[in-house]
Every structure is written in C-alpha cells, then in structure tokens.
C-alpha cells in the first residue's frame, strides 16, 4: 500500500505513528494511507521554514517571481498527472479537476507579478526636504490549512503569493486527498525553490494545533467549514497571529419572473451539481419569485436533470462524481430525508443512484427538492452535496431578506433581465461575492475571494490584492537628510 508522508526542507519524510486511510470514493476502497504528523514533525517543518526565511526574505522579488514562472510551466506540463491524482482521491471528473487546476495556475500567474505587487508607496516632500514611503515587508513563517474539496486550487490561493512576498510557508492540506497537493509542492522545488521555503505536513487537529500556537508562526490562512474556521480564527488570534479563516456557505440564486429561464436552468445545473455540490460557491438554494416562475423552473429542472450522468472521474462523459466519504454520503442523504420529513417535496430523488460497476462508491445522485422553507434544517445548514432546494417567495424583497437573514454570506446570484433590479440587488445584498446572471461568481486571481458574515473570519479576503496585504506588513519610513538651510533647532510641537 502506498503511504503519503510530508515534505520538509525539500525532503520527503514519513512519520509512521498514526496513519489514516485515503479512499477512492468511486469504488469505496482504501487506496493509500496518509501519515498524520505528530507535534515534533510539525515543529521540524516550522524550524525549516524559520531557517529558510532570512535568505528568502533578502532574495529580490524578481528572482522569487522567476521561480513561479518555472512553476507555472511545470504545472501545465504535468496537468494530466495532477488531475488524475485529484480524481483518484477526491472523485471529481477530469474536466472539473482541469478547471480547478487552471484556477490555481492563475494564482501562480498573479504571483509572478511580485516586483510590481511589492512596489510600495512613495511621497516626496511630505515636509521641507522630507520624503516618506511605505514598504511591504514579509511576515516570516506563515501557515496554510486547506479543505478537501479543492486540493490543488485552494493551496495555490495561498502559498504562491505568500512565498513571492518573501515569506516561508508550512502547508497542512486535507488528509482526505493529500497526493496532488504534495506533488504540486514537489514541482515547486523542481522549479528552483530553495529548501525550507515551502514545507508540507499532512495531519489532522494535532498538526493544526501546533501551527495555531507555535510562536514562530506569524499568520494563518484557513479554508474549510465554519465551525473549524471559527476555532482557527479564535485560537490563532488569541496566540497573537494574523488570521484569515474562510468558512462554509449556503449560496442562494434568486430566479426572477423575467429571467431567461432556459439559461437559468443550464446555469443552475452546473452550479448546483458540479463537483457533486462540494464547492463553497455551489448554488444550493433557488429562490423563485412568484409561483409561475417557480413552477416553470421546477418543471424545466426536472426535465433537464434526466440527462445528468454521475460516475467515475476518468469518464469525460460524466457530469459529476461521488462525494468524499461514506459518512458524508450518509449526511447528504440525511438532509434529503429531513427536508422530506419536514414537509418538502422531493421532485428528483438521488438517494439511491445505481452506478453499474461502482456499487460501493460514495455516490449521491442529483436531487431537486421543492417547497423548502427557512425553518427546515436542510435550509439552514450547508449540505455540501448534489442537492438543489427550491424556496418559493412572492417578491424580490422577500427573496433578498431570506439571503440577508442567513448566517452565511459567501456567494449569491440573481437571474433577471432587469438591470435596475440587478443593480439594487448587488448594492444591498449582504454577501461577499455576487453574480448577475453568473452562477458561480468566483473572483479571478487579480481580485480577491471572500464571503461575509459567518463565511469568513478576519478582515482580508484570500488571494489577489488582499492576499498581498495579508502576507505583508506595512512599514512607513520618513526620511530627511539635513543640508544647509534646513538645519533646525529643537521643536516641541508637530511641524505645521
Ligand atoms: P474541514 O473544516 O473539515 O477541514 C478543513 C481543514 O481543517 C482540513 O485541513 C482539516 O484537516 C482541518 N481540520 C478539521 N477538523 C479540525 C479540527 N477539529 N481542528 C483543527 N483542524 C481541523 O472542511 P472540509 O470538509 O475539508 O471542506 C469542506 C468545507 O470547506 C465546506 O464547509 C466548504 O464550504 C468549505 N470551503 C470553504 C471555502 C471558502 O472559500 N469559503 C472554499 C472551499 C471549501
């Protein structure tokens, strides 16, 4: 059996005390085992990052960026291998994995602009013969903790930018699908990254807690579920660290009566069921305004869902794959059961999909539920599966109130032909990422990604301009060189 270890100081190492099974979710079989790092291994990784920091901090940004240019090429050359690893352990279909990887590469491309991103701010003559500038200095050792659902992309939201800013990094990927993340880190070394600048430790809470409390770690980026995000933010902050912790979601799409319904249905299919609904930006609630719109939407969705195919990652014809674990499969089915028990109607039922040859896989078929109300548990909580719930309301205001009242505020979308309604929606909705006829408004790499309310703890969003701010510390320097004519005596007041 293959075992997956850690990458510390540029070397693959393994700690064999505690191991965890890694599954192929399409077959339900254990395919590998991952080592769960004990405290000492995480401390070794932090020490390696700490030792690598001074030389890396002093490496010119242009040279740091050149490593990223080579890294981008290696990612593209090895894309098929990376997507294969993602498919084997996460289960997402190869075309979906390729999309994830591409979004990750776009963050590497952004990081290639390090010399420009780190230029700082300069003001000449802020006083007589006095100049002032702000520069952005790296923090030191920073840590990233990432979820299972994007094993390539989410780590690349973090370490490329942190590293080009001059930091060194310890990454703790998801223990459920660790192979592609570890391989990507190896490619960065092949691209010329000095040893110790990026270290990867696999593990669970034990490893994470070391990163949250060790004094040498200056900042923590986290992406995962809300209860863990809240814990990470509270613990890291209490230990004096800068922290951004991105959490879970419940993303609503408002379907207005004037929407292009065929387009809305197509967009909803991909956004609700793509990647088995295991995306933090998945649209999991359609709020239909007016019964006529709701009836049309449900009828068209029901018809379109007949054509969806669920199955194994390597078959390009499949639309989406299994969910990540048996426990998660049961949890998703549990939410469908609870919605039904609470009085909603299951229009398309994915609870018992039959996938020939993959009977033991962790599959859930695409599911459509109508008549969902805000008091239902299935509405309030994140399902993270291929389940679209329809809520019926009478007005757009009512639809917006639902969204604004929800504890999560990650993404949302409105389907309409009315520009005025769309503008009103985007101005007043209490959500961090908004789409207008765009179902998954994931910001591109040169903007920043983040939700509002309990979808993000911290001030700065992930990657893009906010990422540069997160991974640097501002220092403002004011300078005067005395020369004839500007020599002054003692002053006890601010110059005016
Ligand atoms: P998770 O919270 O279970 O795990 C995320 C990370 O935290 C993993 O590395 C895991 O090992 C670690 N972890 C788990 N339990 C821990 C504990 N008790 N103490 C310390 N660390 C712990 O999340 P997941 O199931 O891997 O990912 C799915 C979740 O991530 C969903 O809620 C999804 O919405 C969210 N997500 C959010 C975003 C976003 O940008 N907001 C993006 C992707 C995923």
TrEMBL record:
Keywords: NAD, Oxidoreductase. The keyword NAD applies. The keyword Oxidoreductase applies. Residues 15-477 form the Aldehyde dehydrogenase domain. It holds the Pfam family Aldedh. GO terms for molecular function: methylmalonate-semialdehyde dehydrogenase (acylating, NAD) activity. Its EC number is 1.2.1.27. Gene3D superfamilies: Aldehyde Dehydrogenase, Chain A, domain 1, Aldehyde Dehydrogenase, Chain A, domain 2. GO terms for biological process: L-valine catabolic process; thymine catabolic process. It comes from the Bacteria. InterPro entries: Ald_DH/histidinol_DH, Ald_DH_C, Ald_DH_CS_CYS, Ald_DH_N, Aldehyde_DH_dom, MeMal-semiAld_DH. It is an enzyme of class 1 (oxidoreductase). This is methylmalonate-semialdehyde dehydrogenase (CoA acylating).
